[in-house]
Amino acid sequence: MQVLNSLQDFKAWVREVKKSGRTIGLVPTMGFLHEGHLSLVEQAKAENDFVVMSIFVNPAQFGPNEDFDRYPRDFERDSMLAEQAWVDVIFAPSAEEMYPRKSQLSISAGPLASVLCGASRPGHFDGVLKVVTKLFHLAEPDIAYFGQKDAQQLAIIESLVRDFNFPMEIHRVATVREKDGLAKSSRNVYLSEAERKQAPKLYEALKLGKKAAMQGRDPVSEMKGFLQSETSGVIDYVELLSYPDLTPSPDGQAILALAVQFERARLIDNIIFTLKEN
C-alpha cells in the first residue's frame, strides 16, 4: 500500500493506472475508520482493479461552531486498517495541499440542501461538493462509494455526477450497524456511557416510523414522542421525504431521516424504503 500526500504524486500514480486501462474505485473518507468505511472498501475491491481511499478532514464542510478541531483523527490506526483491507493507495493531503489559495468560485447544493441536515448546517453540503469535485478530478475513479447513512449527502453527490456528466458511477452501500442497531459513525466516540445506551433508540424510532408510514399513520409525531421518552437527546429533525429528490409527500421511494443532538455528539440515521399508497 502506498501513502501519497501531494497532488502531484497522486496524479502521477493515477495517470499510470489509466494508461494501463485498469479501473479505480474511490472511497472518500475523513478518517477514523470503522466497519462502515471498510464495507465500502470491500465492495470497491470486488468491482475495481485498484482501490484509492482518501483521508482528509475537509475544513470546507465544517461551520464556525462545529467540531473540526476535535474531529477524531488517528492516521496510524487508519493506515493499518486500510492496509489490512487491501487498499492500494491512501491519498492523504493537507488542507494547504487541497486548498492552496482562496477559491473565487463556489458550488451550491441548491434545494437538496434546504432540508434535513442542510437546514441546520448552512453551507455544509456546498463544502462537501467542493471537496468531492476535487477528489473526482484528481482520482478519476470509475466508481466512487458512499454509505447510505449519509443519505442526503449521497443524494446530492448523485445529482452532481448526473447533472454535470462526470464520467463515473456512484455506488450506494448499505449502512453498517452495531449489534444493537446503532449506525456506525466516527462521532460515536463522543457519546457518554449513558448516551451510548440510549443511542440505539434512534434506529428503533426509524423502524417504528416505517411501520406507521406503511399503515397510513403519521410517522413523524410517533417517532418524536418515542425519542423524547427514550433518550435525553434534543431532536434536530424527524422527516419523511421522497428519495432521492428529498421533497415532501412521497408516494414511491421514501426516506425517514432523523438527527438527534446529544451533549457532544450529533447523530443521524435513516431508513430508505418503498412507501405504497393506501
Automatic annotation (TrEMBL):
EC number of the protein: 6.3.2.1
Gene3D superfamilies registered for this protein in UniProt: HUPs (3.40.50.620), Pantoate-beta-alanine ligase, C-terminal domain (3.30.1300.10)
EC category: ligase
Annotated catalysed reactions: (R)-pantoate + beta-alanine + ATP = (R)-pantothenate + AMP + diphosphate + H(+)
Pfam families according to UniProt: Pantoate_ligase
Binding locations of ATP: 30-37, 147-150, 176, 184-187
Subcellular location: Cytoplasm
Residues that coordinate or bind (R)-pantoate: 61, 153
Family as reported in the entry's similarity comment: Belongs to the pantothenate synthetase family.
Protein known as: Pantothenate synthetase
Organism: Planococcus dechangensis
Annotated gene: panC
